Amino acid sequence: MKVNLPNAATLTLDSSSNELYGYFLVSNRWTVMNDANITFVRKNALGYCYNLDWGGPLTRHEALKLRNNSAAITIVSIATIKPFLKTTNDKIYLPNTADVRKAIGIDNEDLQLAN
Q1: In angstroms, rounded to a whole number, what is the distance separating the alpha carbons of residues 6 and 103?
Q2: pLDDT grade, residue 10 (50/70/90)?
Q3: 90/80 Cα distance (integer angstroms)
Q4: Could you give the angle at the alpha carbon of 108 between the alpha carbons of 32 and 110, nearest 5°?
Q5: Beta partners for residue 40, in sequence order
Q6: Pairwise CA distance, residues 115 & 94, whole Å
Q7: pLDDT per residue as tens digits for the range 69-113
Q8: 89: burial class by Cβ within 10 Å (0-12, 13-18, 19+)?
Q9: How does DSSP classify residue 91?
Q10: pTM of model > 0.85
């Protein structure tokens, strides 16, 4: 499956030959233990989202600028999260699993439970 992301190369989940570049911002504050997916900061820091097309990809410079040294935001590369991505209703999501949290550097002890 291919998804065209604005201002980016086509993200293909089943192609090992594509070299992907770009970054996403993960919200450590709004990702909670019992959510189905990891929460991303939307492009231009306009809120939060689960689907990747709303969250980026960003250049390294954009990611650093939007992160603004916040401990509540983790910068992750497409290369790091690509093996874990799932598609639902033509949208790409990053499942909130222990393996994903470990890969992107989120400590389970820091996550809260949603009501």
Answers
A1: 26
A2: very low
A3: 21
A4: 70
A5: 26, 49
A6: 21
A7: 777 888 999 999 999 999 999 899 999 999 999 998 887 666 665
A8: exposed
A9: E
A10: no
